[in-house]
Amino acid sequence: MSRTFAYCRVSTLDQTTQNQIIEIKAAGFTIASNRIIEENISGSVAAQQRPGFCKLIDRLESGDILVVTKLDRLGRNAMDVRSTAERLEKSNIRLHCLALGGVDLTSPAGKMTMGIITVVAEFERDLLIERTQSGLNRAKAEGKKLGRPKLLNDKNIKNIQERLKANNNVSQAARDFNLSRRTIMRIRDSQY
């Protein structure tokens, strides 16, 4: 007999999975509370690297059903979502996504849907990269400095270098200037 599980994930501590649980129950799925896996972790972390999801995978058996409200609960990366769906399919576990009309993503129609979603997601990612590069190139052409601003001005760097030449104590310089040892070492080695 198949069992039904729910995977509910949020990204930040101030969010709750309660709405996802309500949505799953409203869709007609009856899931025992011990089969509702709730996790608070970023979607950018691959599903196979999330502690809660890994425990869930270990509990799932052939014939079981896994329900998610949206694909982004599994991951934000289309490739990660796709590999997760394929892994579940190989284990004969059905994956239902409510946002896609409750379609079983391991069925032929679900696989087709996943294929389309994956292609669109890859296209969107490529467009985002292209727009980002275009913006960076424009900013460079306008003479804007890119990257994180330096913590120290030239005068402070010179003071630190002089201090290091005098006593060569990186730890003391770090404490005196309220900087990390690594930053002091980069200044000492002229990489700052």
Shape: elongated
β-strand number? 5
Q: What class would the helix/strand composition place it in? A: alpha/beta
Compute the separation of the termini in Å: 63 Å
Radius of gyration: 25 Å
Strand content: 5-15%
Largest sheet data: 5 strands, mixed
Please give a quick description of this structure.
The longest helix has 34 residues, at 108-141. The chain contains seven helices and five strands, in the order βαβαβαββαααα.
Task: Explain how this protein is built.
It is a single chain. This protein has two domains: 4-112, Rossmann fold (3-Layer(aba) Sandwich), CATH 3.40.50; 154-188. The model has no long low-confidence stretch (mean pLDDT 89). It starts with a strand and ends with a helix. The protein has helices spanning 18-26, 51-59, 78-90, 108-141, 154-167, 170-177, 181-188; strands at residues 4-10, 36-40, 65-68, 94-97, 103-104. The chain has 192 residues and is α/β, with parallel strands linked by helices. The chain is built from seven helices and five strands. Helix 6 crosses helix 7. A five-stranded mixed beta sheet has the order 2-1-3-4-5, with helices on both faces.
What secondary-structure arrangement, pairings included, does this model have?
Layout lengths: L3 E7 L7 H9 L9 E5 L10 H9 L5 E4 L9 H13 L3 E4 L5 E2 L3 H34 L12 H14 L2 H8 L3 H8 L4
Parallel strand pairs: 1-2, 1-3, 3-4
Antiparallel strand pairs: 4-5
